[in-house]
Amino acid sequence: MNQELKELYQQVILDHNKSPRNFRKMENATQFAEGYNPLCGDHIDVYLLIEDGIVKDVSFKGEGCAISKASASLMTSILKGKTREEAEKLFEKFHDLVTGKLGDNPDIDELGKLAVFAGVQEFPVRVKCASLAWHTMMNALHNKDEKVSTE
Amino acid sequence: LLEFATKQIAEVPGLRIIGTAKEKTSVLSFVLENIHPHDIGTFLDFEGVAIRTGHHCTQPLMQRYNIPATSRASFGMYNTKDEVDVLVNGLKKIIEVFG
Q: Which of A57, B42, B48, B93 could cross-link A49 (Cys pair, CB 3.0–4.6 Å)?
């Protein structure tokens, strides 16, 4: 496989695409939002259970390409146990990563597993795939009613 | 060339051709089991094959077939059988990577 392509489709991403984590509807969610990318048809529902300002549980449902599914899956795994502020900070970090604002040396410690999405910055058309879940999560966090749309 | 490509592509495991009218223009729409068309598109770019992926502005039709999107190869006067082989081999490679 081409090197650039390998960077995009890393093993962790392929794995999360095949068996997404926290892929379920949450009945006792305190927060919920819907995200949609009309151009490619990706559609995602994000559920949050927040107690005392802490993300106790987070899950998602929907369909999309490998990048968007893996991104949603990894997001749910990393957000559990985080405070609202930490979640918002991670969103910003992640966004900077996939849009190439962090440059060649992203702060791996802070990003943790999310660093596997560094390859996305070389594919501008796929940035939306990677960030849809995160934008939707932010809307859920702020209890915004409107549907997230990438367009 | 469409006939040739239809025959070749049908041999790719897990592939389903969408649109099988007897008289159709030389386009070939298809879906691959468990692999999203956009991943197929990005992958094929690197094989040197440009295809179109997505809704093709026909969301109601996609709903009717209950699929998120399709991949679509179009053939012109200038395309060759060898290029069809590149496409088909590319699809087999994708299955290996994503399968």
A: A57
